[in-house]
Specification:
689 residues, alpha+beta, ten-stranded mixed sheet, five-stranded antiparallel sheet
Amino acid sequence: PSFSTLFCNVDWISEIDRVCKTRLRQNNIICCGRRWVLVTVMDGGLGFVLTGGATCLSSRSVVELVCRGSRGWSGCWGKRKGYGTRLVGHVGFVRCPSSVGTKSNTRMMAAVGDRKGRKGVDEEESIYKNTVNLPQTSFQQRANAKVRELEIQKFWEKEEVYERLSRGNPGEPFTLHDGPPYANGNLHMGHALNKVLKDIVNRYQLMRGRKAVFVPGWDCHGLPIELKVLQSMKSSERKNSTPIDLRRRARDFALKTVEEQKSVFRRFGIWADWDQPYMTLQPEYEAAQIGVFGEMFLKGYIYRGRKPVHWSPSSRTALAEAELEYPEGHISRSCYAAFRITESSVSSNSDVQRAIQSQSGLHVAIWTTTPWTLPANRAVAVNPNLNYALTKAPDGRYIIVAQDLTASVAEKIGFELDMITALKGTELVGLHYAHPLEDGLVCTVIAGGDYITTESGTGLVHTAPGHGQEDYVVGMREGLEPFSPVDDAGKFTAAAANGKLVGLDVLSAGNQAVIEEITASGVLLLEEPYSHKYPYDWRTKKPTIFRATEQWFASVDGFRDVALGAIQSVNWMPPVGENRIRGMVEGRSDWCISRQRSWGVPIPVFYDKESGEAVLTEETIGAVQQLFRERGSDAWYEMEADEILPESYRGRDLIKGMDTMDVWFDSGASWSAVVEQNRELQFPIDVYL
C-alpha cells in the first residue's frame, strides 16, 4: 500500500495508541527506494517504526533504529538490556532512553536486514507459521547446478549409461549423423544449440528402446585453420615454411582445438561416442573422400576448366559461393563510357553509316561498376529484343543507348541526347569498335541475353569473359577467350593495356589508373560512386574479384535431377526447408571445388610436365586412395610422383597437382567416410539436423 493509505489506517493507529497509551505524533518520514519508513517519537520517550512494501517487518527481517543527535543511541528487534519490543501488525516499536527526548530536530534512520541468528523472538512474531501446510521433501529447493551437474555426469560415466543403452537396447538401430563443427576456435551458442537439439533427439530414441549410437565429428581442414596457424608464425617462419611444415602445424592446432571443444561438449552433458569421434584429417576418412572424388570424376561429374570464379586476393585462393558474404555499405566507382565504332559493314541503316563517317563518330555507351575489368573487355553485348536509340550529343558525337534509358542517361551525364532514329538490337550486332585501352584491338558488338535490361545502365553491357559469369557464357558461345590479365595477388599483369598497368592492385591503384586512362582518351562520360552489394571473403572480410583461372569443378548439371529427386524423397521439418534447398539446387551453377592452399585433402591429379595435360584414371585414383589410407594425405607432400603412381605410370615425367579440395567437399563426403564405414550406423541415415 502507499504511504497515505497505511498512515491513515485507523485500526492501526488505534492499536498503537492503546498499547502506547499516548497519541501518535506524525513526523520524521524516511523513504528507502520502494520501501518507506515512518519514524515517530512519542511522549514519554517511546519511539516506533512503520515500514511499507512486501518486505516490511516480518519474521525474516530486523529493523535497526539509529538516532543521530547530540547523543547517539541504537536499538534493534529482540530482548536487549531492558529495551522491550512488541509486534502490532506491521508496526514495531522500541522503548528508548528518555534522554533522547522529543526534540523535532532529532533525525532517525531505519534499515531492513536479516534477522538470522537473533535470539528472543516474540512468539507473536510467528503466529502464522503453523497455519501453512507445506510438503516435506528431501528434494533440494536450489538447483546447485555447479555441483549437481558434475555429480550426475560422473554417475553417467561410472555406470556407462549411454554405452549400455546405445548398444544394449532391444530396439532397431537409430542413426542421427553429426554434421561436423569446425575445429578453429571456442564453442559458441550456435554449437550449444546444435548439439543439445541432437542430444534431445537421441535420448528420446534411447528411451523408446532403440540403439541410438551417436558419433560426433569435426571438420579439420581448410583456410580458417591455415590462416590461424599463419597468424601465429613469425614472418621469418612464414617465409621459410614448406607445405608439409604448415600442414603439421595445422594438424596440431586442429587436434588441440578438437580436445578443447570435446571437453566443453561433455560438460554440456551431451551423450556421444566421445572417445571415438570422426575427424576429416583421419587417414581412413581422407581415403574415403578420395573414393568419392574418384567416383564422381569417373562418372563425368568433375572436370577441369578455365572459367571465372570468385577469387580472394587477400587469401590468394578461389572461393565457393558459400564462402562469400555481402556486407551493406560497399561503394564502387562506376563509369559511363563511350566506345567508338570503327566500321559497320553489317548495317544498311543510312543514319548509322552517316554517324560513323561524321567527324565525331558513332559510339556505343556502356556502364560498369568495375572499371578495372575494362582492359579485359572483348565485346559489347546488346539484347536483340530491346529497342535502341541513335542520339546526338551537343559536342557532335553520335551515341547509342537503349531507347527507354535515353532520358536517364542524359540526366546522368549532364547533356542532352537528341533522338535521331530508333534501332532494334539485332541491327547493332556485328558492329566493330576500337578497344578503349588496348591500341590496335578491334572488338565486336554481340547478342547477349535476358540479363540485359533497361532497369539501369545504358542497355549495352561491357563484356569481359574472364571476369563475369554471364560474360563467360556469352563469350564461349561467340568463341571469345576468357582473358584475365590479373595475377593471384589481384594485380595487373603485363598483358593489361599494353603493359601500362602492370603491378597495380585492381581494386585500388589499378582502378584509378584505368579511370585516368579513359578520361585522357575521351572515352569516359561520367564517373560516380555507386552503393550496392559486393562479394567479400567471409574469412578475411576483404573484397573479392571475379577472375578466370584453371580450376576443378563439380558439374551440378550432371547430377541436378538426381539431387532434386533425393530432396523430394526426404521428410523435411519444417516443410519450408525443402523449398529452400530445392531453390538452391535448381539455381546452382557448377561448383568450384579446387583451392590453392596447403591444408586440405589434395586433389589426386598428376600433370604431364611438358604439355600440362591432366592424368587422372581409375588406377591412379586407387593408388592415391590406398596411400592415404596407410599414411594419410601428408604423404602427397612427402613423396615424389613416381613413388605414388602405379608402376605402369612411372617414368612418364609426371608431376603432382598442388590444389586441395574445398573444405565443404570434406564434410560432404561424411556419409561415405563415416556412416558407410561404421557397422553400428545404418545407411541411409534416419535424421540429419
